[in-house]
Amino acid sequence: MRILLRKQCSRARSGAGETGRLGAAAVALTLACTGALAPALAAAEGRSITAVSFGGSYAKASVKAYHEPFMRETGIRVNLDEYNGGLAQIRAQVETGNVNWDVVDLNAGEVLLGCDEGLLEEIDQDALPPAPDGTPPAADFVAEKTLDCGVNISIFSTVYAYNRELFPDAKPLTIEDFFDLEKFPGRRGMQREPNANLEFALVADGVPTEEVYAVLSTPEGMDRAFRKLDGIKSQVVWWETGAQPPQMLVDREVVMSTAFNGRIFNAQFLEQQPLEIVWDSQMLGLSYLAIVAGSPNADLARRFVAFATSTQSVANLAGYISYGIARRSAMAFVGRHFEVDVDMRPHLPTAPENMTKVVFEDFEWWADNQDDLNERFAAWLIR
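Above: the chain sequence. Below: its structure as tokens.
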């Protein structure tokens, strides 16, 4: 740690006077170099937390956006672990008393369930950093509902994408096109879970986006969604991790696939792949950072969550992957991608031009219905 700090101090002195997008970290580094933070850094040396993410390009973006700046500023090491989502592994750790994860990236519905089950620590929202202009965090976060056990880190979108090279003439433009095997023949990729698939199916069957959950709440509406999925089931290749859809499209294993928008963006611009996103009827979801109940490093984990969900960290994340901004104040700091010359703002799911037809995930509805629908979906898959 001391060797690393000496190198950073040397760079900081040589670049004195320059400003950057990591202003808070730069200020902290300057204080550390003058000795003002030496006691705190010395106390932090040798301490670490484990942060768990979804892997792939999202995990890499998280490391660049706030893991590495946090380590530079505090001296606390962040060890990255990866998983495919869900509460099963967290539940097993908490129930056995063998907790080795500290901070986990979860979707909103999972945070609700995990909090109700006592799997997650409560987080004092008032202790989070305010916006640069002093706006309290509660007024700065975009999410309308505050969750007791999580802090919103990003807004992601489930979309569908296609390989441009496979569509030299007419191209898919709507969610109806995804379900139209006659007009656009070929295999489809879909995630092996009911979430988003049921919503897409109903919108493709003519249900207005704002009525999706009201329809899904009826037995007839649920049957309708599964009937629509029946129409393409024979042509579906099921995926389980976010890295699979872009690879399936590049390999031409499928002609279209549902996917997380950030994964497609990275394939498009970092890997120069001929992929195209269809924003029609995109499904917006919220990603949260949560602390596992019984974490042996809960105090460090709270510092990490506060740092990661600050205005600058949220803006940094959008500089590495095209996920939406969790804090209103962060939008002013979003510009071009840190590694490729691309303006990030038009590629965010929350960009006005991408929001003309949107399904807003009802995470409370999913928290109430997830278990039952997982069972029904699993039975439908093998039917």
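The longest helix spans residues 363-382.
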